[in-house]
Amino acid sequence: MGDFRKAIADFNQIIKIDPTSPDGYYHLGLANFKHGNDKQAVANFNSALNRNPNLADAYGNRGLAQYALGDNKNAVADLKQAANLFQQQGNIQGYQQTQNLLQQIQPKQSKIYFSSAN
Q1: Which ranges of the sequence are coiled-coil (predicted)?
Q2: In the CATH scheme, what architecture does the domain 2-117 have?
């Protein structure tokens, strides 16, 4: 628990130094998500995305946090946005991981989506 509190303090310090940077908010979101603070994680990822809407990882992790909260509709929308951004940015591994997550969350819809793409 001490490491978590230190991480939170460190990321809050980063935000205090540069409140316009998405990095502090993104990493604060990761720390909160890893410790089960899903609502706070979503808020942190929102802040990161408000500062940089091209952060594919932030969309992906916000999607996972929303899924943990039972918000499947927004989780799927965020994961699809993350996949699109990963693809645009040439991040094949990120794209594939996100597609795998989408298949796990919505297996029937993913099969229809992938079969219609062929």
Answers
A1: none
A2: Alpha Horseshoe (1.25)
- The domain spans of the chain are 2-117
**How many residues make up the chain in this entry?**
118
Cβ–Cβ < 8 Å for 65, 37? no
Choose among 83, 89, 117: nearest CA to 102.
83
- Inter-residue contact 43 to 15 (CB < 8 Å): no
Distance CA 76, CA 110 (A): 11
pLDDT one-digit tens code per residue, 31-80: 999 999 999 999 999 999 999 999 999 999 999 999 999 999 999 999 99
User: Is 0.90 topped by the overall pTM?
Assistant: no
